[in-house]
Amino acid sequence: MQDLGKNFGKTLNLDKLTSYCPGCGHGIVTRLVAEAIEELGIRERTVSIVGIGCGGFSHHYMDIDAIEATHGRAPSFAVGYKLAMPENIVFTYAGDGDSCAIGLGDLLHAANKGMPITSIMINNTVFGMTGGQMSPTSLDGQVTATTPRGRDVSWQGYPLLVPEMMRAMPGVKFLARESVATPKQIMHAKKSVKKAFECQVRGLGYAFVEMIVPCPTGLKKSVRESYDWCASQMNAYFQPQIFKDEMEQSHAD
Amino acid sequence: MSQETLFLKNTETFAESMARCGVKYHFAYPITPATDVMKRTAVILPRYGGTMMQMESELAVSSALAGAACSGKLAATSSSGPGMSLMQEAVSFMAGAELPCIMLDSMRVGPGDGDIVGAQSDYYMATRGGGHGDYHVPVLAPASGQEIVELMPRGIRLAYVYRTPVLFVIDGVTAQTTESATLPEYHDYAADYDVSDWAYTGTGKHPKRALITGSYAHEDGFQMNERLRRKYERITEAEQLWEEDSVADAELVVAAFGIHGRMCKDLVRALRAEGKKVGSIRPISLWPFPQKAFDALPDTVRQVLVVEMNHGQMVDDVRLALNGRVPVHFFGKTGGDMPMYTLHEMIAKTNSLLGE
Fold first, then answer.
1. Digits of tens for pLDDT over chain B (356 positions)?
2. Which residue of A has its CA nearest to B99?
3. Nearest alpha-carbon partner for A153 in A164, A138, A132
4. To which H or E segment does residue A37 belong?
5. DSSP assignment of B120-139, as one string?
6. What topology does CATH give the domain B245-353?
7. What ipTM did this prediction achieve?
């Protein structure tokens, strides 16, 4: 067998069969995270704190220490961990259900504290693991397992825009929303993920990247349809962009 | 810091005991009657190279506590009933994940927001695990400032030897009592224990470690619970702790913990002076419950009286321990301007059971 480790380094665990569904956006994000860790040379002091949901599987594919937190609490776990282990690199990896339904309070307060922590939120607009229920980021009118007639924003709320809420927080030093809908966008996302880790390595402050990804299974679409939908509907609403990059102006205390 | 005797509120003594025994990180959220712990750790922990971190909720408190505990370093929290309810999510997690930490419940009146006056209303929550799942946490109930000082190293030992959260419960009356305590010289008890074989510190010196408490393979969940069961059996056998007074020939034994347990000394002395054969048992470890103290009661004992600042919680464990051997009576109340019994009321109740 070809030694893929020569190309990918030690972080990405290529021996493990993925449990992500075919076409799942998590696979792309997990690889981007592993590549950032590998390229920054921080594998041996990096700890992943994952949420509940499909994002919770991500650490199985990386050869780094990992903590599976309680649902929504990964950012608070990370705050406690970083306080006790300031030299280590700690990042949270969780979906939109974990991060902005049950864990929004934990996430926003962790961001506002401004400790050097990296958070990756994978937004596919549904609770994927439990079978495609509405999440806070489901689009206006989106049909899900729990919104059979589509999300009614008049009482179920509008799709939540998380980085927009963090924009005014001075402790957040790198803030971006990226998409994996097209290869070009994936290459752009790769740079932001790496910056989000670099921000912590340099001790500058909190870094957050939201990743817009498709969930073919949860969205009840073919892989191709789900990527098309991600590129048109999701990107149109969420508008991937870099909100804040204060890494050049910032200096660690 | 060297040994010194100070006149302190017992919540402050708790803070001093933590700091002087090696607690490095204290996560908390303000709540009466536990806030004085975090006020003092905010001042003193930096002297010991530690930090008090105020979080935005008790949910975040216990989650950050769990995150810090993953590192193997000693972290703690302190709260009161409503806060402890919120914390149970991560307490259950830490029990399953086998993470050491120190917690304090300065107990007030419940249920709901209840009242801020002292109570012993969290006995059930403390001794039955508190959150979801089959687990226990060792529970220690000091009855004075000096006993807080004496029990802190024991609590840390339990936390690291058995890799478990350890909970101190103090009724809000004892917690807010101001009295003298001789504080120990600094010693980092946590440093006495080697955590290198399990702590999640990065793969630098070891192969990948993953903390997984969810059981994706059902056999894993079964094995996790079996391991916990064996651990709880070891704790139950080895770690029962109580204080007893004049039980050798007693006809009536009063059982109480915390402030009422402390008052039993005076109760026994007063009634013995009148020639009445009364003794007392003061459970110090509430879990494991001191079954052995009740097993060893002599045949002279005809009845047991349980006094609590609640509507009857520990009395269940006393009845289980005695298993119908002798009648068990209950005397308790909670809340109000005077949320506990006076010594006079306890003596009157005991006398009435003695037929006087």
1. 799 999 999 999 999 999 999 999 999 999 999 999 999 999 999 999 999 999 999 999 999 999 999 999 999 999 999 999 999 999 999 999 999 999 999 999 999 999 999 999 999 999 999 999 999 999 999 999 999 999 999 999 999 999 999 999 999 999 999 999 999 999 999 999 999 999 999 999 799 999 998 876 788 899 999 999 999 999 999 999 999 999 999 999 999 999 999 999 999 999 999 999 999 999 999 999 999 999 999 999 999 999 999 999 999 999 999 999 999 999 999 999 999 999 999 999 999 999 97
2. A67
3. A138
4. helix A25-40
5. -TTHHHHHT-SSSSS----E
6. Rossmann fold (3.40.50)
7. 0.96
CB contact under 8 A, B90 and A88: no
Among B211, B213, B215, the residue to mutate for chain A (most A Cβ within 10 A): B211
Between CA B326 and CA B297, with CA B241 as vertex, the angle to 5 degrees is: 25
Query: Chain B closest CA to A233's CA: distance in Å?
Result: 34
Contacts of A137 (CB under 8 A, 6+ apart): A96, A100, A123, A125, A159, A160, A238
Q: Which CATH number fits domain B4-238: 3.40.50.970, 3.40.50.880, 3.40.50.2300, 3.50.50.60?
A: 3.40.50.970
Give the A:B interface size as CB pairs under 8 Å: 121
- How far CA B322 is from CA of B136, B244, B301, in Å, comes to 21, 16, 11
Residue A196: alpha-carbon gap to chain centroid: 11
Length of chain A (residues):
253
- The residues in B 182-221 lying below 8 A from A, measured between CB atoms, are 200-204, 208-214
> Which among A65, A79, A83 has the least Cβ separation from residue B200?
A65
Q: How far apart are CA B305 and CA B346, in angstroms?
A: 10
Question: By C-alpha distance, which of A107, A114, A143, A142 is closest to A238?
Answer: A142
Give this prediction's pTM: 0.96
List, in order of start, the domains of chain A with CATH numbers. Answer: 5-245 (3.40.50.970)
For residues B131-168, one letter each, b for 16 or more C-beta atoms within 10 angstroms of the residue's C-beta and e for the rest, the string is beeebbbbbbbbbbbbbbbbbbbbbbbbbbebbbbbbb
Q: Tell me the residue type at B75.
A: A
User: Which residue in the set A68, A73, A84 is minimally distant from B212, CB to CB?
Assistant: A68
Domain ranges in chain B?
A: 4-238, 245-353
Closest Cα in chain A, distance from residue B67 (Å): 4
Mutate to test the interface with B, among A49, A70, A93 (most CBs of B within 10 A): A70
CB contact under 8 A, A66 and B89: no
